[in-house]
Design goal:
Layout: E1 21-23, E2 27-31, H1 34-45, H2 63-75, E3 80-86, E4 91-102, E5 107-115, H3 123-139, E6 144-150, H4 154-162, E7 166-177, E8 180-190, H5 194-205, H6 220-228
Parallel strand pairs: 5-6
Antiparallel strand pairs: 1-2, 2-3, 3-4, 4-5, 6-8, 7-8
Helix pairs in contact: 1-2, 3-5, 5-6
Length: about 230
């Protein structure tokens, strides 16, 4: 009996991420480097231990230990980490990374996102996500772009949906993080969906989408809901 299989796919692997700089109107995304970024990031995170609640590392009581962690993080090939430079302030305000990098399957995840208080809920924060997604799909050649988070992390869950990721399910008892169970929520954008998601990002980021006080006229969530049909 004939058994069905999926459609044929281009077998050529995607490209592994490298030390590129991604330029936007509101931010710049560049390879994480302890010498250039650790001091700025320490200031960005200072006093906000809650930022690390769902993260495997941190919080860090001393700047030296934090700088050592940034140095170790920057040396890893997976996750491959970047600093987000807020152009309005001229310094690093957060980090994010590509991880679970599988070039042969053309699958990559964006994660390890730690935005300091001054970067959160800014245009620059969203633009950094757009730059990373565009680079993964259009330059590196990935066909699946993932987002995963602790299923109890409501803020990350909302962010994924706002950015246009589709919820795919929950992996129960997936990990143990800092001695606690973690059920993991999985989300993804596919390469076939990227043109629509890209259009939503670019419509949201357009200068005409913001009034003279910087308030958005259309939300990214609404744009993605409209574009998804």
């Amino acid at each position: 009996m004939e058994q069905p299989i999926g459609p044929e796919v281009d077998p050529r692997p995607a490209v592994r991420p490298g030390p590129v700089t991604l330029h936007g109107r509101y931010c710049r995304v560049e390879k994480l480097d302890a010498t250039r970024h650790a001091a700025d990031l320490w200031r960005a995170y200072q006093g906000d231990d809650w930022l690390w609640r769902y993260f495997p590392a941190g919080p860090f009581p001393q700047e030296r230990g934090f700088a050592d962690w940034i140095d170790e993080r920057a040396a890893l090939s997976d996750p491959y980490s970047y600093a987000v430079i807020d152009l309005s302030r001229g310094r690093a305000g957060g980090i994010l990374a590509y991880l679970e990098i599988r070039p042969d399957m053309r699958v990559i995840e964006v994660g390890g996102v730690i935005y300091g208080r001054t970067l959160q809920e800014t245009i620059a924060a969203t633009e950094a996500q757009y730059l990373m997604a565009r680079h993964a799909f259009q330059t590196l050649g990935y066909r699946r772009y993932e987002w995963k988070c602790d299923a109890l992390n409501a803020k990350s869950w909302r962010a994924a949906q706002r950015l246009g990721f589709t919820f795919e399910g929950t992996f129960r008892q997936h990990r143990i993080v800092k001695g606690h169970n973690r059920d993991t929520a999985w989300f993804a954008i596919l390469d076939s969906e990227w043109p629509t998601r890209k259009q939503a990002f670019e419509r949201w980021l357009a200068t005409e989408n913001f009034d003279e006080n910087g308030r958005q006229r259309l939300s990214l969530s609404a744009l993605n809901a409209v574009d998804c049909g």
